[in-house]
Design goal:
Helix 1 (3-27) runs antiparallel to helix 3. This protein has one domain (3-91). The protein has helices spanning 3-27, 32-39, 64-91. Helix content is 66%, strand content 0%.
């Protein structure tokens, strides 16, 4: 992977909590599906409980901003790994 692209991805991951946590709390933003669920009287986990330790872009033991960054880094790493594996599989054919 090109070094500049990787630096940009990491920069964006570290920038994301500004919009996803800090500013969202300041303006009172709520996800549209969360709003629809509350209007219907549904509570979280009423329908599906995924039993994941990484709920709502958080990591156990980390604050909201650090958890958001860790979640972003984990997500980017997973997607990059899938891309590298797929690329190697295609090249081997």
């Amino acid at each position: 992977m090109e070094k500049k692209l990787l630096i940009l991805l990491i920069f964006m991951v570290f920038l994301s909590p500004i919009f996803g946590v800090i500013l969202a709390e300041k303006v009172g933003y709520h996800e549209p599906l969360d709003i629809a669920a509350s209007l219907l009287g549904l509570k979280e986990h009423d329908i599906v409980n995924y039993h994941t330790p990484f709920e709502d872009y958080s990591f156990p033991g980390l604050g909201p901003v650090a958890g958001y960054i860790a979640s972003g880094l984990l997500g980017v790493a997973i997607i990059l790994a899938i891309g590298v594996i797929a690329s190697k599989l295609v090249k081997s054919r």
